Amino acid sequence: MVNAFLITLFSSVQARRQRVIFGLLKRRLTVSTEYWGLRYNLLTYVGLFPHLDQQVFDQQITQFVEQGLLIEIGTDTNQFLLTEKGLAAKQACQAQHYQIQYMTLATQPLSNVRDFQQAFWLANQVVSESAYQNKRYYPLQVDLQTKNLVKRWYQKTYKHDIISEWVTSITEFLQQLPPITANQLTATWVGHQIPGFNLEQLGLPTSWTEVDFYLWELDLFAHWQQYLSQKQDDKQALGILWVLTQRQTFLSPSIRTTVQQISQGTSMAIISQQRHLKIGTVREHLLTAAIRLPKQDFPYDLFLTTDVVAYLQSHLVGNIDEWQFADVRTSDDPLEFFLFRLYEIYLTKRGERP
Question: By C-alpha distance, which of 214, 134, 219, 227 is closest to 175?
Answer without folding.
Answer: 227
